[in-house]
């Protein structure tokens, strides 16, 4: 906080407190079964939150992601179940629909100058209404429990080596990336981490990764949903941190006029970010439909009410992505969504009412935003002569 940066340590400390508290109240909280279910439950909201990160980085907001998620699930169910379209093709159409919706929002915002808040708020209502129309006033469409989409959340890799291999690959990847970054900074005369710190960080990551793998193997093994989520995080982080396009996104978040004077096509970047948000919202919606094995007007109304939206924004902000733009990463979503879903899981085990869960989630979100604002204020003070 004094340095003007809100790192992950505060969130990790919060996760430890949450785990200890709920384990003391119910010893099933840290059981392999509950933790494995938790690792699957975070994926739908987490994917939507990754899309939110892309939009937040350019100092904007997308309020339509909940409705877009519900629409994607409805489009898939209608095409596959009602019209007999193959699952793989229905999935492509649903995701392409989310991308098209994102492009629609981006064009109105970037080229017509309509505020993103207004465009996406209108989208929340439009796409939620379209979802209800597709499904019918009282219809519920059940998807094939043995099909492609249902397997997204039900499939597990039972071989113990699968989870351990992912843990080893992730640890080795971090170690190599950290050393490459150190070498580049050293060659450029920039500050860099000492080797001891890199080894310590790698060791801590290895302990966490292999502990998680061991826990998952004690139940059903590595969930396919979690593996897909981790791949999305790695690819998203690489795009934002290691490509020219990602640097343009951060530059735009730092200031529109400065980015424009640097030769960045502001309008194209803005449209692209909303397309990413719509695409990941659609993918997240398919995972939500997979967990429910159905699409219905009830779930569509729930999406339109904003809980998925609020949880996605909360996951991004709690993890460390700034509402003021220019700061954050997809990996922040992993910590944030773990906080949100851990609280929901713990209170579910204790039988706490939904009203209390809403209040607690809102309080955690408010605390995260306040911490972000305080860190910005601290950075501004340090920047003064």
Automatic annotation (TrEMBL):
<protein>
    <recommendedName>
        <fullName>Xylose transport system permease protein XylH</fullName>
    </recommendedName>
</protein>
<keyword id="KW-1003">Cell membrane</keyword>
<dbReference type="GO" id="GO:0005886">
    <property type="term" value="C:plasma membrane"/>
</dbReference>
<keyword id="KW-0812">Transmembrane</keyword>
<feature type="transmembrane region" description="Helical">
    <location>
        <begin position="271"/>
        <end position="290"/>
    </location>
</feature>
<feature type="transmembrane region" description="Helical">
    <location>
        <begin position="356"/>
        <end position="374"/>
    </location>
</feature>
<keyword id="KW-0762">Sugar transport</keyword>
<feature type="transmembrane region" description="Helical">
    <location>
        <begin position="161"/>
        <end position="177"/>
    </location>
</feature>
<feature type="transmembrane region" description="Helical">
    <location>
        <begin position="198"/>
        <end position="216"/>
    </location>
</feature>
<feature type="transmembrane region" description="Helical">
    <location>
        <begin position="37"/>
        <end position="58"/>
    </location>
</feature>
<dbReference type="GO" id="GO:0022857">
    <property type="term" value="F:transmembrane transporter activity"/>
</dbReference>
<feature type="transmembrane region" description="Helical">
    <location>
        <begin position="331"/>
        <end position="350"/>
    </location>
</feature>
<keyword id="KW-0472">Membrane</keyword>
<feature type="transmembrane region" description="Helical">
    <location>
        <begin position="222"/>
        <end position="240"/>
    </location>
</feature>
<keyword id="KW-0813">Transport</keyword>
<feature type="transmembrane region" description="Helical">
    <location>
        <begin position="302"/>
        <end position="324"/>
    </location>
</feature>
<feature type="transmembrane region" description="Helical">
    <location>
        <begin position="88"/>
        <end position="110"/>
    </location>
</feature>
<feature type="transmembrane region" description="Helical">
    <location>
        <begin position="7"/>
        <end position="25"/>
    </location>
</feature>
<dbReference type="InterPro" id="IPR001851">
    <property type="entry name" value="ABC_transp_permease"/>
</dbReference>
<comment type="function">
    <text>Part of the binding-protein-dependent transport system for D-xylose. Probably responsible for the translocation of the substrate across the membrane.</text>
</comment>
<keyword id="KW-0997">Cell inner membrane</keyword>
<feature type="transmembrane region" description="Helical">
    <location>
        <begin position="117"/>
        <end position="141"/>
    </location>
</feature>
<dbReference type="Pfam" id="PF02653">
    <property type="entry name" value="BPD_transp_2"/>
</dbReference>
<feature type="transmembrane region" description="Helical">
    <location>
        <begin position="65"/>
        <end position="82"/>
    </location>
</feature>
<keyword id="KW-1133">Transmembrane helix</keyword>
């Amino acid at each position: 906080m004094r340095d003007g940066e809100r790192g992950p340590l505060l969130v990790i400390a919060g996760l430890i407190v949450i785990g200890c508290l709920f384990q003391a109240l119910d010893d099933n909280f840290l059981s392999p079964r509950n933790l494995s279910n938790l690792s699957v439950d975070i994926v739908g909201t987490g994917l939507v939150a990754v899309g939110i990160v892309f939009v937040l980085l350019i100092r904007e907001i997308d309020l339509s992601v909940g409705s877009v998620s519900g629409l994607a699930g409805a489009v898939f169910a209608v095409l596959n179940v009602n019209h007999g379209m193959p699952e793989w093709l229905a999935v492509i159409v649903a995701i392409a629909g989310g991308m098209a919706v994102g492009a629609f929002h981006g064009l109105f915002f970037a080229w017509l100058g309509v505020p993103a808040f207004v465009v996406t708020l209108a989208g929340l209502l439009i796409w939620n209404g379209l979802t209800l129309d597709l499904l019918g006033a009282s219809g519920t469409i059940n998807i094939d429990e043995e099909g492609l989409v249902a397997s997204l959340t039900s499939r597990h890799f039972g071989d113990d080596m699968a989870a351990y291999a992912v843990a080893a690959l992730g640890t080795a990847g971090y170690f190599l990336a950290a050393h490459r970054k150190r070498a580049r900074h050293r060659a450029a005369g920039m500050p860099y981490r000492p080797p001891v710190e890199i080894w310590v960080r790698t060791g801590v990551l290895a302990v966490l990764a292999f502990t998680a793998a061991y826990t998952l193997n004690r139940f059903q093994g590595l969930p396919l949903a979690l593996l897909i989520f981790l791949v999305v995080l790695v690819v998203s982080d690489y795009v934002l941190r290691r490509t020219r396009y990602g640097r343009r996104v951060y530059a735009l978040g730092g200031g529109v006029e400065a980015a424009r004077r640097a030769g960045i096509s502001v309008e194209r970047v803005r449209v692209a970010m909303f397309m990413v948000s719509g695409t990941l919202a659609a993918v997240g919606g398919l995972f939500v439909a997979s967990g429910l094995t159905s699409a219905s007007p009830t779930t569509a109304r729930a999406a339109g009410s904003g809980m998925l939206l609020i949880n996605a924004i909360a996951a991004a902000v709690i993890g460390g992505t700034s509402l003021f733009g220019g700061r954050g990463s997809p990996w922040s979503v992993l910590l944030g969504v773990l906080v949100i879903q851990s609280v929901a899981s713990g209170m579910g085990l204790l039988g706490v009412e939904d009203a209390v869960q809403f209040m607690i989630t809102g309080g955690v979100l408010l605390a995260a935003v306040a911490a972000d604002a305080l860190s910005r204020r601290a950075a501004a003070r340090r920047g003064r002569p």
